[in-house]
Q: What sequence folds into this?
């Protein structure tokens, strides 16, 4: 009796290879998507119960002191605010699946309409701050690493560490107040609030970007210093390659991974920073609307704003993770 050994065909091997190549990406995307959905659910649940714990009567605040008790009671019943808390929570979760946040108690308009009217202002402000931070911090950090290599430029290094450490450690509202006092009140070069054209953006954008520039430039300096000490960089220099070739071929590709990683956190922090910046400068974005929704106990508006901000931050981080996995396949393998 003879035994037959079946040899896998080339097609079977190719198919197995393709499945094996796809599996890290499939697992990566499934895990990241699951984490994103879970995070959104936790944030939505937290903001729902916290908004109810704030206290206050949103209907009374919106109707004013002249509203009769009968009107307030009827309005509360219409909005379902007298229903059991878990019943309200169930309706809330059902609505947010379709991003239907209900009606704003303070304005009577759809929450989606209120947010859509303000969101472009915040996106524009955040985009300018993000671009400014990237355009300044990346070349600054690389230049500082090259300038202070092998112990050179001690005074320059000390000044950089002191200034960047200062701006990285102070909160945005202090930066905003300082900029207003210097450039709006003292020098009267720029408007403290409002204004038209480019001048209206300068102080808010600086407020949101200075701290990011400080942190990212320090990160870029540290990463560039590390790459300059690597063997492949030393070899390139030993072969008398021009400094520009060494920079663009060996240094930049290896430091951009850290930049991509931090850029996701930058986008998330910009949304949080917009709340403070827009309040100080009277900017008509969702950050300003967020503060007003708390002041008048507008639960639906507050919940909608938090979920929109959280969704933007989580999706931005998700996209950055995908780009990072494409640029650096090792991160994809490590996550698997």
A:
């Amino acid at each position: 009796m003879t035994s037959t050994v079946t040899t896998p065909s080339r097609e079977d091997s190719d198919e197995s290879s393709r499945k094996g190549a796809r599996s890290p990406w499939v697992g990566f995307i499934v895990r990241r998507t699951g984490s994103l959905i879970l995070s959104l659910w936790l944030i939505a649940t937290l903001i729902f119960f916290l908004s109810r714990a704030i206290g206050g009567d949103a209907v009374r605040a919106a109707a004013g002191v002249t509203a009769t008790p009968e009107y307030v009671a009827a309005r509360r019943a219409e909005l379902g605010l007298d229903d059991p808390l878990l019943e309200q929570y169930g309706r809330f979760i059902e609505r947010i699946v379709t991003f239907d946040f209900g009606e704003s108690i303070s304005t009577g308009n759809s929450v989606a309409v209120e947010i859509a009217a303000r969101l472009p202002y915040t996106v524009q402000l955040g985009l300018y701050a993000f671009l400014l931070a990237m355009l300044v911090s990346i070349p600054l950090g690389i230049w500082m690493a090259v300038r202070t290599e092998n112990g050179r430029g001690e005074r320059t290094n000390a000044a950089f560490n002191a200034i960047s450490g200062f701006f990285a450690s102070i909160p945005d509202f202090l930066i905003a107040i300082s900029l207003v006092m210097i450039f709006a009140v003292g020098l009267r070069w720029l408007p403290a609030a409002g204004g038209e054209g480019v001048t209206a953006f300068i102080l808010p954008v600086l407020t949101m970007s200075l701290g990011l520039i400080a942190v990212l430039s320090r990160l870029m300096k540290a990463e560039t210093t590390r790459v300059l000490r690597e063997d492949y960089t030393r070899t390139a220099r030993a072969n008398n390659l021009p400094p520009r070739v060494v920079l663009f071929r060996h240094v930049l590709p290896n430091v951009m991974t850290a930049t991509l990683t931090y850029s996701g956190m930058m986008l998330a922090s910009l949304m949080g920073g917009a709340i403070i910046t827009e309040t100080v400068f009277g900017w008509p974005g969702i950050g300003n609307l967020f503060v007003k929704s708390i002041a008048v106990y507008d639960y639906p508006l507050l919940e909608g704003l938090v979920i929109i901000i959280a969704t933007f931050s989580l999706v931005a981080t998700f996209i950055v993770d995908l780009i990072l996995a494409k640029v650096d396949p090792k991160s994809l393998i490590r996550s698997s």
